[in-house]
Amino acid sequence: MKELDWANLPFGYMKTDYNVRIYYRNEQWGELEVCSEETIPMHMAATCLHYGQEAFEGLKAFRGKDGKVRVFRLEENAARLQSTCRGILMPELSTERFKEAILKVVKLNERFIPPYESGASLYIRPLLIGTGAQVGVHPAQEYLFVVFVTPVGPYFKGGFSTNPYVIIREFDRAAPLGTGIYKVGGNYAASLRANKKAHDLGYACEFYLDAKEKKYMDECGAANFFGIKDNTYITPKSTSILPSITNKSLMQLAEDMGMKVERRPVPEEELLTFEEAGACGTAAVISPIERIDDVENGKSYVISKDGKPGPVCTKLYNKLRAIQYGDEPDTHGWVTIVE
Fold this sequence. Notes:
By secondary structure, this protein is of the alpha+beta class. It folds into 2 domains: 19-152, D-amino Acid Aminotransferase, Chain A, domain 1 (2-Layer Sandwich), CATH 3.30.470.10; 163-325, Alpha-Beta Barrel (D-amino Acid Aminotransferase, Chain A, domain 2), CATH 3.20.10.10. The chain is 22% helix and 28% strand. The chain is built from 7 helices and 18 strands. Helix 2 (74-87) packs across helix 3 and helix 6 crosses helix 7. GO terms for molecular function: branched-chain-amino-acid transaminase activity. Pfam families: Aminotran_4. It catalyses: L-valine + 2-oxoglutarate = 3-methyl-2-oxobutanoate + L-glutamate; L-leucine + 2-oxoglutarate = 4-methyl-2-oxopentanoate + L-glutamate; L-isoleucine + 2-oxoglutarate = (S)-3-methyl-2-oxopentanoate + L-glutamate.
């Protein structure tokens, strides 16, 4: 793949050689199938198209200095997908079958895994959809699990640098006790208008407040939020926030560094007290926050006074990346090596 400019890859879709598929029919999962076709033949009455029976995950594979390929925390992605399946009544795929599919598709597309220190990685997208025809509002009888991969560059063009964010009140991403804790497409469709508004205003992304009281910090676009103060890592807790695997990993690393960790409601006014803050997720790992503007109320919470990532965010980012690339020991058993 020498013709690819690895250092300047966008975060987008690129055709690779193969995807893998497993069909659910007659109340059981079938054998794994390898496919080179990019499209899915589907009945027009499929439940994924009408009733949102659709779930997806996102994870990455990294090529280390030693040439080995590592996939980060795939068991956690399997568990989160299983949780989503329970939430919207789809059959669960076992962790073993999930792992089999992930490792197979990475191995089949090994030539697309970016080289070490290119700043790029192989993005892995598992997708589970209801394919059975249904006109009444009921779960499907048939499903398709498909996994494709694509090499990607950094999610934000500036890479690991601070970004401005804006609080958007007129739209909610997800309701309390709704589907916010599940990784379903409807949550992302609900974010498109707010995200466009934030971009039109010149911000990197939008911030949502809790849908019930509009008082507490919820999610940051499609990412979890965290703040740092008094040697404490603080991240919101609510029934509408997707449990980020990156955030879970950062909480553990913060504890390893001797920091306290708090998961609790974070009122908007507490933004004034944070020494550092960031948005975190698979795509960006950490996007340090420069400031959060509340345009509606004429407030601006400046987090980074010098416009640069803070020392704790930087240390956490470097530590997590070092584990993903195999530059530091994987003491928590987070990495799976592709044989």
